[in-house]
Amino acid sequence: MMSKRRPAGTLAAVLITAAATSALSTPAHSAPDTASKAPTRAPVTCFATTCHGLDPIATHCVDDAVTIADATLGGRIVRLRYSAECRAAWAQLWFGKPDDRAYVRTEDNGGHTIAIQSITVRPGNENSVYTPMVNDKDLKATACAEIPSLPPDSDTACTIFY
User: Fold this and answer.
1) Which residues make beta-bridge pairs with 156?
2) Using an 8 Å Cβ cutoff, are 83 and 68 in contact?
3) In a structure prediction context, what are the per-residue pLDDT tens digits for the chain, which is 162 residues long?
4) CA–CA separation, 102 vs 19, rounded Å?
5) pTM listed for this prediction
6) Which residue in 16, 26, 65, 118 has a CA-CA distance of 20 to 30 Å to 85?
7) SS (H, E, C) the chain
8) How many separate helices (H) and strands (E) can be counted in the chain?
9) Dihedrals φ, ψ of 63, to 5°?
10) What burial class does residue 77 get, using C-beta atoms within 10 Å of its C-beta: 0-12 exposed, 13-18 middle, 19+ buried?
11) CA 119 – CA 117 distance, rounded (Å)
12) Quick check: 147 and 102 in contact, CB under 8 A?
């Protein structure tokens, strides 16, 4: 009686041929257009001096913003945020407690203060607060946090100037 089993090599050859034939004879389908277009952003509504005192979210300056530097103090983090498109900067304070204050300050090349914008943490907004913006065109900016519950002379921390 003859065995009905095929040699393993023959079976492998049949499977490889079938797979290759199947792959080659399958009709080509055009791939769906999955290349998604970049989401359109709203245009910014201010530039440099016209951003002074405005909200970075409302003006869309936050859309291209980067964090330049951080400073920490008493469990809080203050960040210097900057928008190249708006040429404006602001301070963002994380984990503040009521009465903590964050501010952003700009200086000219001579070290003279040009502008300051600040915000004080109120009950209920302890997670994150941010200041209005300051013009940063041809100036340098720093972000600072003041924590009144800390001892004097150790109650303020600032980022580098940028």
Assistant:
1) 146
2) no
3) 444 444 444 444 444 444 444 444 444 444 445 455 656 778 999 999 999 999 999 999 999 999 999 999 999 999 999 999 999 999 999 999 999 999 999 999 999 999 999 999 999 887 899 999 999 999 999 999 999 999 988 999 999 999
4) 66
5) 0.74
6) 118
7) CCCCCCCHHHHHHHHHHHHHHHHHHCCCCCCCCCCCCCCCCCCCCCCHHHHCCCCCCCCCHHHHCEEEEEEEECCEEEEEEEECCCCEEEEEEECCCCCCEEEEEEECCCCCEEEEEEEECCCCCCCEEECCCEECCCCEEEEEEECCCCCCCCCEEECCCC
8) 1, 9
9) -65, -30
10) middle
11) 7
12) no
- Whether 65 and 57 have beta carbons less than 8 Å apart is answered as no
82: its two tokens = 């900057």
Residue 95 in tokens: 């984990």
